[in-house]
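[job 0412] stage=fold_complex status=start
inputs:
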Amino acid sequence: MGSGDGAERLRRFVDAVWAQEPPDVRRLRDTHLPPAGRWGGTLFANLLLLWSGQNLHTLRTLAREGRVPVDALSAVAGAYLRQLSVWLAHWHMDDTCGLADALAGAFEANEFRTAEEFGDAAARLSLALNRVQNWIDAYTPWAQLDARLPALSADNAPGQARRR
Amino acid sequence: MGQRFVLTVGDERAVCELLDARAPRIAARFAECLPIESFAIHAKFAGGEMIVMLPFTADPENEILSVSRGDIAYFPEMQTLCLFYGDVVPFGKVSVFARVVENLDGVRRVAERLPDVVSVPVRAARA
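[job 0412] stage=fold_complex status=done
writing structure:
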C-alpha cells in the first residue's frame, strides 16, 4: 500500500474490530428510527457494507486488468466511500464512518498511484468493512425472519385494488 | 497427505487437511495465519454451508461450483471460509483449499443449530 497513514489506520481498525463486537455495531443494534425501528437500519447497514466490499473488489479487479486508469478508479472509490459514510452516520457508526472518510480522502488525493497500491488498499479496506458487516450478521437471525415475518400477499401490492 | 489443522466449532473439534497441491497459495496463506479466532454464522442461500470470516485476502484458486460435503473453501470477495456440511445449493464458485477428514458429523450438529443460535465461536489451529 502506498500510503503509510492509510495502511496503519486500516491495520488498527481491523485489529480493533476483529475479536470483539465493535462499538459501531452495538450502536446500530440499539438505534431505533421510526417507523422501521432496529431492523430497518440493521438490514440497510448490512447490505451497504456488503455492497461496499463487493464494489471495492470490482474496482480492484479493474485496476489489475489495467482497463481503467487508477486515478479514475480512485475517484470512484472515494465517491463510494463518502456515500457509505453518509448512510452509516444515520446509525451512529462513527468509527466506520471515520475510516471511510479517511480512506475516501486518500483515494481522492491519489495516494495510491499504481494498480498494485490501489488493489492492496481496496483489498484491506474490503476486509475491514466486511468484518463490520460480519458482526451485524452475527446478531441477525436471518433464517428466522422468513418464518416470523410473512411477506404481504400479492393482493396488497400497489395497483391491485384498481385491477380488481 | 496435506498439512492438518484442527477446527473447533462451538463444542465440536474436527480435523481438517489442507489441499496443498490443488490450492497452494490459499492453503499456505491460511496456514501462516494460524491460530485464527473467529466465529461461524450460517450461509443464507446455499443450504448446508457454514461460513467463518478469515483475516486475510487472497485471489481465487481451484475454483469449483459443485462442492462436496466436507469441502472447505475460501470466498475471496468476502474473505470467508465456507464449510459445506450438508446438502448444498450451489450459489457461486469458491476456492476449495481444504477438507474435513474427521468429525464432520460433529460440525454438522453445531451448524444445524446456527439458524437458531445465529453464531458460535470458531478456532482454527495447527494439529
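[job 0412] summary: Residues 4-141 of chain A form one domain.
[job 0412] exit 0
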